[in-house]
Amino acid sequence: MKRLLTSIFVFxxxxxxxxxxxxxxxxxxxxxxxxKFIGTIVFFKIPVGEAQLPLVVLWLVIGAVFFxxxxxxxxxxxxxxxxxxVRGDYSDPKSAGEVSHFQALATAVSGTVGIxxxxxxxxxxxxxxxxxxxxxxxxxxxGMSTKFVECTLGVxxxxxxxxxxxxxxxxxxxxxxxxxxxxxxxxKFVGTFYAIGIFIGALGxxxxxxxxxxxxxxxxxTGGETGSWWADKGWLFGTAMALITGSVIIxxxxxxxxxxxxxxxxxxxxxxxFALIVIFMNYDAIPQAISNIFTGAWSPExxxxxxxxxxxxxxxxxxxxNEAGIGSASIAHSAxxxxxxxxxxxxxxxxxFIDTIIICTITAxxxxxxxxxxxxxxxxxxxxxAMTSAAFERxxxxxxxxxxxxxxxxxxxxxxxxxxxxxxxxxxxxxxxITMDRLYKLIFCIFVALGCMVKLGPILDISDALVFLxxxxxxxxxxxxxxxxxxxxxxYFARIKSGExxxxxxx
Amino acid sequence: MTSTFLVAVDGSEGSDRAVEFATERxxxxxxxxxxxxxxEWSPYSFHTPEELAxxxxxxEEEIERAQTKLLGPVTESLKSKGVDVEQVVRHGHTSExxxxxxxxxxxxxIFIGRKGESRVASLLFGxxxxxxxxxxxxxxxxxx
Lengths: 507, 144
Known about the structure:
The structure holds 2 protein chains of 2 kinds. Chain A has helices at about 1-15, 25-40, 55-70, 75, 80-85, 100-110, 115-130, 130-155, 170-180, 185-200, 205-220, 225, 235-250, 255-280, 285-300, 305-320, 330-335, 340-350, 350-375, 385-395, 400-430, 435-450, 455-500, and strands spanning about 45-50, 50-55, 160, 165. By secondary structure, chain A is an all-alpha fold. In chain A, the strands form 2 sheets. In chain A, strands 1-2 form a two-stranded antiparallel ribbon. A two-stranded antiparallel sheet of chain A has the order 3-4. The longest helix of chain A is centred in the last third of the chain and has 43 residues, at about 455-500. A 5-stranded parallel beta sheet of chain B has the order 3-2-1-4-5, sandwiched between helices. The interface between A and B is medium-sized, with 39 and 28 residues.
């Protein structure tokens, strides 16, 4: 961390245009060893056959499987009810004006639908082969249960501040939940650990990774690595992006944020529609692409570690995209005023579904069908979002430009959401004061700029490592608090069945 | 049994006239008045996480302001005239919510002031009065 701060300092003092040409490289060289160091600790691997299984991925998989069984497949059972809740069937008109289920879901989805859905999937397919897609979907399905537990707890244990605003999320449920079970000291410890993790992690997954990939795609459409004037101007693009972000989160220019939040859902739909068009234009390749996903899941060719290797990479990317197990979404969901915390958990089931099972799968199919139709298409060295862009370009030549636009908006909305998640971790630690609030937001903006100056490799490593790190205390807490969630869930569904909880609309 | 009249109040001149008109009718027929202020709000809009966190506080503020600043003075002056009056503030789609309130309070009539919007404006944004007339479960009196 100290070296990371040093590199920011270097960035601030050396921002002289004359030195800017070699600047991206300087930053890159400075961050690579840090990334490696953090990566080795967090992704401590145990060899299983040929594959290397990072313990933290195992931790997440076991958690997701456990919650799916323990909650009696709530991810399937609660699905229909989730849609009824979002539609407002159970909303009391007297409490209109409070945050609705739909709004909480839309905000949380805006936070998770980001570059990971476009670029992250390409990374998964490159490293894990087509079969990684299967595990990605599987992880999304199981992740629905994890998300259910964490969002329920987020609402149940939130804190109402003096000014009427609410603060919630894993740091609060870990803190209060453990205290309820007579382990106050431990709760305080894991809560603090989580808060530190989320505020640093927010700088990676919700910040540097996003701005980096938005920049990559921008360079891509303005002429590529060699042709674009922007190619070595990461510092300039990054500074611009940091200024816009700063104007929203520090300057309070809500209009920009509001526009983004409104455009993003339409952008997501627009992206899916065009992706489906591309897939169906390659209809010849669809059966083969789908079959590759299934055969690749069990017996992949050329993937290190075989099926297990594909599984690991699929799960890793899925968590990176839908954030189940990280606990971030529960911070957004905790704002909903409801007498039944379970309802928020049920609604949040839809997030991994939309994010991973729908959007990521569509991206995977775009790449998959392109690979089948033109086996040599994935050029060596093309990775991340550039690969997805190339897959689109094969069929619709002008698509990289709207894709770049979409990528920037996705990146931007994710950054806005994560700046808040990180802020909540920060204020949990340092209290809700204006000075601390501003200081954090300033740091956040610096990292936006920094994200455009380093290459994907080290950035992805740092992001991954930090985000997976906070899964450890979060899921540990979920195990301890799961019986409380289960009790409330059983009581809730029983009352739905007996008719004690009634619909307000639709009879 | 006394009947209940629901009056839509939004602080405009039109709504003042509606209150006045309804008061005359209420005094004549010994009816009870319910003054309703609707804060336009949709459960399907998009917000940043920060706005969500502040939402509960904002809502209380909005209701408080409408109760004391907008409806309060009207209620007081009507009470001094000897009218049986009650006030209610609700978030939602204006005409839909008025229709719901009419049912909730068992109102036999709704009084609403006409804004007198131009044709273009009501074409573009729709008119609350017109859609209330279309959907209301009870008779609507539009006060010009």
